[in-house]
Amino acid sequence: MGSKQKFWFREPDGGGTWLFKFPQPNTGQHWAEKIAAEIAGEVKILHAKVELAVFADVKGSATESFAREGGELFHGNQVLAGQVLGYDPAKKFGQSSHTLANIFAALDRVFRRPETARASKQRIAGYLVLDALIGNTDRHHENWGILVKRTPTGRRRRIAPSFDHASSLGRELLDESTGKCRARILKENRIGQYAENAPGAIYWNPYDRRAISPLELVRRAAKLYPDLFRRAFATLDKLEKESLERIVERVPPGWMSDLARRFAIELTCNNLKQLREIAP
Length: 280
Fold this sequence. Notes:
Elements: E1 6-10, E2 17-21, H1 29-42, E3 50-55, E4 58-64, E5 71-75, H2 76-83, H3 100-110, H4 114-134, E6 145-151, E7 154-159, H5 182-187, H6 191-197, H7 214-224, H8 226-234, H9 241-249, H10 258-278
Antiparallel strand pairs: 1-2, 2-4, 3-4, 5-6, 6-7
């Protein structure tokens, strides 16, 4: 699935199963995956384990499978197609029916017990706050899902860990160029504008022509569903710039430029400030 070249591999001696992803040329998708996973861990968001990895002298990322012990992953498009009338699960771009309201309505139908449905929506709210923090613009309907495990007493369902954060932290930008680049955005103090203008992949209304930014999505959703988002905002209380700097600096030399490191830190700090102002 998706546009990036990838393959599955197993660790020797009965280790885990991992998905190696080649980054698209001239992007930082590999380090964005790793940093995003580390930030998710810092704010206690359930997430897929990611490591930096090299295959055939190509730097990439490896994500450990979380569909273990008989669990089967059903992606968001499969969930919505089964619960939202007329939903097209095959539509790759401009799927304006992929709204937060439809996601929450589908979860209410999948998880019949009110307390379980509420917990599932709270977890999705946490993923959206993470997206807003790291500037993840690719939470499309194949980038979230439900794990289903068949048991002797029936099927057990739970929200899958957050995964596929490669479209984060300004990974698509070049350091220097004549157009939009990290150096120019930083010099002109336009980090906030960059974050607010970045279209996400979850729409607010089904008739909108484009999805709103991850920050704007959380801004609106926190007003409409304050109880669902309150726990996710609480995880940000102890997050500081120093923590973000430590995470970014752990990326080895040669994997990302100094300017990319600075941009990633400044972007997350800007978004953290915005989220604290949004918090219900």
